[in-house]
Amino acid sequence: MWTYMNTSFFLARPGIQYEEIAPWQEAGGTWRRLKVHFPAQIVTHSTEQTLYFDQQGLLKRHDYHMDISGGIGAAHYVSDIKKFSGIVFPMKHRIFGLQPDGHAAPEPLAVSIDIDQLVLF
Question: Which of 16, 27, 53, 82 reaches 20 to 30 Å from 33, CA-CA?
């Protein structure tokens, strides 16, 4: 969960490399995409991931291939954005399989996470 809740903040860390790639059409809108390369010292699902942002700059989706599971692809959607101490966090996480064409598999829902409260220290 730590990685899921902090994904956007990682972009400001030293050693993170990223580049904007072609926009993506989904859910009736155009999402901007960043291909992100994480250094080895950040423990995450994979060193290369793709982040999708809406027109307001909010993270909507996060794709990765799980290194520990033979490279299985995941499309991780976030929603129900709420503010805590002025910082926005997604409270709902839905993770589906990732198809070869980059679309999320409609079924099955692999992971469902609902966060009821969040406390920042």
Answer: 82
Q: Which of 50, 54, 48 lies closest to 25 in space, CA to CA?
A: 54
For tokens 């926009």, name the residue.
23
Q: Is 2 helix (H, G, I), strand (E, B) or coil?
A: helix
pLDDT single digits (tens) 64-107: 998 777 788 999 999 999 988 888 899 999 999 999 999 999 99
Please list, in sequence order, all residues whose beta carbon lies within 8 angstroms of the beta carbon of residue 71, skipping any fewer than 6 positions away.
Answer: 46, 65
Specify the length of the chain in residues.
Answer: 121
Under a CB-based contact definition with an 8 Å cutoff, are residues 62 and 51 in contact? Answer: yes
Distance CA 63, CA 86 (A): 26
Q: What is this structure's pTM?
A: 0.90
At residue 46, φ and ψ (nearest 5 deg) are -160, 155
Q: Over the stretch 19-31, which tens digit does the pLDDT of each residue have?
A: 999 999 998 999 9
The Cα–Cα gap between 62 and 43 comes to 16
Match 């990732």 to its residue by tokens: 98
